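Continuing the series of single-chain predictions for the mutant panel. This is the parent chain; the variants come on the following pages.
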Amino acid sequence: MPLLTILSCKILQDEVVHILKNDHLVDEILVVGNGQEDDLVSKLRMAGLDHLLLSPAKLRSDTETYRNDPEKYSVMIYMVELALHEFPKILKTEVYKLIDELGQCSSGILLFYGLCGNVFDKLDIDFSHLEDTCPVRILRDDTRVVDDCIGATLGGCGEYLATLKNLSEHGTFLFTPMYAHAWREIMRVDPVKPEKTIKMLRKVNEMTGYKRVAKIRTGLTYTDNFDEKVDEFAEIFDFEVLELEGGQDLFEKCYEDIKHDIIGCK
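Parent structure:
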């Protein structure tokens, strides 16, 4: 059976663990040790999932057995550096480079990404040449690729648009557990001297009309202190706190769809 690679944003690591925890067909979990995997590995252990750590330098040789073993279905996880979101063109370049590399040792690749500022809007076209050997897929609803990880968590483009319309009276940050965990990194808050960055962010929020932060309940508990992290953010910026319901349906469907494409079962 084949080797499926999940190429994922670190913000979606909880969703990756959830997928693996609930798929009893997976015989082997492989994690690429590229320096971005520590939190994921900790959560895999928390979920009771055994895994093997692979060196990025030897992926082709190390994965050859898994890809060609007719008795096993293996999933390999590659976490992409979160900081690349700040530079969409570089993010696209790096992810495309990884797809070219991982496509040589995978039976299929699923990106745990959305459009991310439209940098992945032509992914299907750009990698159509791999369709027969290593199909490449990305998170999408029934009509198109989702905008980002928030849209995926809310259930798709229609749900995302409806949510944004409901919240249009005031600017609202939408936090999943991992987004709440990593907001300082995402917003590039200086860990040594955070006061300057926080002051600047307050001014930007005032100018753009942001006054609220919403907790999106994903149904997952792999990231600790979600409520506390959101409340801390709200207190720093004097924001109102809301709650929204999210879920795992879209992630599960996209995973099952590519699994069906490469091994023929759901």
